[in-house]
Queue: 3 jobs
Job 1
Amino acid sequence: MELEYGTDFSYWYNVDQDRLHPAVREKFRKHKYDEETEEFVVNACNISYFKHVSDNFFSLFLVPFLGATSRNAILNRGVMFVGSSTLFEAMLEPCRHRDSLLDIGAGSGNVTEKLASGFTEVFVTETCPQMVSRLTARGYTVLGIENWVERSYSVISCLNVLDRCHRPLEMLQSMYNCLKERGGMAIIALVLPYNGSVEEGQEWVAQEEPLPIRGISFEQQLSYFCNYILQPMGFQLSYVTKVPYLCTGDLHNKYYSLSDGLIAVTVPPEDEVHNGGETVVDNRPEHTDSTVEE
């Protein structure tokens, strides 16, 4: 069998840094194709044709009853990969405490596992009942999608969730509030260019309050999200990079890839904050295809 993973995947990580806002460029660190990413790609390429055929058959059978996420959970397909444990460890380096981690929208827990090392407690949220069962089996404490805001955490990860919930700004504000008691950190992944939608049953619907991201290119939208959405809310940029958001494939493709902006931000302890924590969105004119450097 001729595998595709011998290809040069460096393009997954390429960014025109000259087109980043200076504040974002200062924190940008170029990542590279590492061993854990290669392992995921190799495993995706080695999924048998029979597995794909049987998954496709049973998925079609389940369509009248379940949405895509639930079907994938039952069939154990559509496995996701965001970043390696080595990358997450580098991003977490400035973290003051590692008492508790909250992973919002943890899915099956595969990505949570790469983040969880060294934390005393690991909490997760997930709306898919089939995924909740897997998370419980892994030993993670599953919190309700409403009551996670009642606790404080050392670190909150929110990986590819902001474009799949109805009110992402409200979620970001809640994350800030849950981190500010002692000063914590958030790791955020967002597919760019931005295209938000929410799975409701067997349909995908538009977000009720999408992120007001402006720009056209990956660099413009990443700059706008970091500099004009995250920072006015009180988050302080710590680490910015670009990674592939990977998913195991099907009969048509061995794997799928989207471009993720992966961002680490810190929140100063509450007693150090004089201003911030307010949801402030920059009211600037629409950006054309030029560098966002204002």
Note: The first strand starts at residue 80 and ends at 81.
Job 2
Amino acid sequence: AAAAAAAAQAPPEAFQAGQAAPFSSAAPHRRYLLYDVNPPEGFNLRRDVYIRIASLIKTLLKSEAWVLVLPPWGHLYHWQSPDIHQVRIPWLEFFDVPSLNKNIPVIEYEEFLAESGGPFIEQIYVLQNYAEGWKEGTWEEKTDERPCIDQPTYSVDRQKYYRGWFWGYEETRGLKLTCLSVQGSASIIAPLLLNTSSRSVMLDRAENLLHDHYSGKDYWDTRRSMVFAKHLRVVGDLFRAKYLNSTDEKDRTQYNEDWEKMKFQHVLVLLCLGETGHSHWWPVPGSSSQAQRLHLGSQKGRAKHPGSC
């Protein structure tokens, strides 16, 4: 697999043809980081991986100009409505992108296509664990180019391009593909990215990277910057008022468009009953039982308005 990956590089002239479109005069000369995760992963894990990659971007920005290309959404396990468009969904459908940009520079995938000049990703790294695992008591952060443990979910076409899912954008192609064993936090991969000549780099299976500083300031800055899109907040406010007798005025949770100025003392509980029941064989408490536990816990912790989603 490694030999095939090394041999299957697109001819330089083909790449130049793909880059024929001129760069936008307003676009800075910067490098692009793209990523994806294991297809079965759900919304919450994908949101968590974004936090890890944001830490990596912050590390890269200390040396060079990088921008994170937001991976389009689509085909998640929980999205089981067959009559709803579920592919090539931009982040602005779920999150307030200007709020994300206050934390790190981000662009949507279609902005990347327009700015970079074509549907090419110069380097794809498929992240994986180490085949030999790690010995107890000898944990160390490291990364090495290794033969692919599993067959990559990409195929090589006649022009020696790598074809894959690419978030539903069938015209997207990769020029080079390498399997990379990683063990450690997200920024462990920064030296590799800074030393590569590729202007656009994709990290596939990015969930294999860990948090740089879980629950540290950078973590919470990124988490707080992930403000839900305004049209979703409007729907949520209507639901709160109709079914929960809850408003910002009653709950004293006045919203501020600047997430850096938001301060809360409320608790949010995430219940994923459907996912748990699908993933594990053991019995899971029902919603009524969980509600009772939530009520008792809120009384014990003196939380006035516990919620769930």
Note: The chain is about 30% helix and 15% strand.
Job 3
Amino acid sequence: MLLRTLLGGARFLLAPRRRGFSPTQQCLRWWQPPQARIRHNAVSEVAFHPKLAVPPIPNAVTDRTVGRWLLICSGTVAGAVVLGGITRLTESGLSMVDWHLVREMKPPRTQEEWETEFQKYQQFPEFKILNHDMTLREFKFIWYMEYSHRMWGRLVGLAYIIPAAYFWRKGYLNRSLKSRVLALCGLVCFQGLLGWYMVKSGLEEKTDSHDIPRVSQYRLAAHLGSALVLYCSSLWTGLSLLLPQQKLLETHQLLRLRRLTYGTAGLVFLTAISGNLHNCYTDPILSGDRMWHALWCHTSDPVEEFGLF
């Protein structure tokens, strides 16, 4: 025992001091059996070097994961645009006369609840002017159309926000990608508020007009336009992460093709937005002043339509 103590002290004095260990800790290490000493070395290395505990994920893996997520999100936005168009064609957009983020997720179930919902709808201009002879069965159809559109919108919001928070916490996003993802999540929230702001314009009582109640065509165009921007931004960012960047020579033909592509995309966007300005029903054969009136059937000022002043 005495010999072991002398040998341990000599080894302690002669051994080089390791970084991260105090003299007392290093002395106690020589009193441990070899197996315990090996375990202590492994634990100590991880403790003093936390980065060794969880190896960093390669950028290629994280980029593929985030890119696929953004492609899925762009698909959900495209589905929302299609479902919104169906809702508009079936004239179902004004069937739900209030907006609650969580409470309206539960649809009416009993006959009494449906009667209550139908009575609320009967107090607004669309029923009084257009659907005054509507039955409860017909109301259920348009109500479920609008309900499905709103629930899909909430699904889109969850598809953006929850994975974004997870990837942010796990360190999958670099600085530039964080700003993009934050902008996309903010645009999703803006979409939900703008959707209700649009519907609200069609529920307002206009005593000096007996036209068919419609939502503001300017708010409708803004709602669709922001959805298209969200879709294109998500798709572009996702493909940029998934597809390798090609180094192409900046030739005259390439620059011309690029300008043509941007111009075509702008025309498609303008066509989609201008279609929403035709916010009334007119005869199928239009010409001259009648065509202009059909396109701009709401003669009010766009600033007034948005309620800015």
Note: Confidence is low (pLDDT under 50) at residues 5-10, 26-32, 34-55, 280-309.
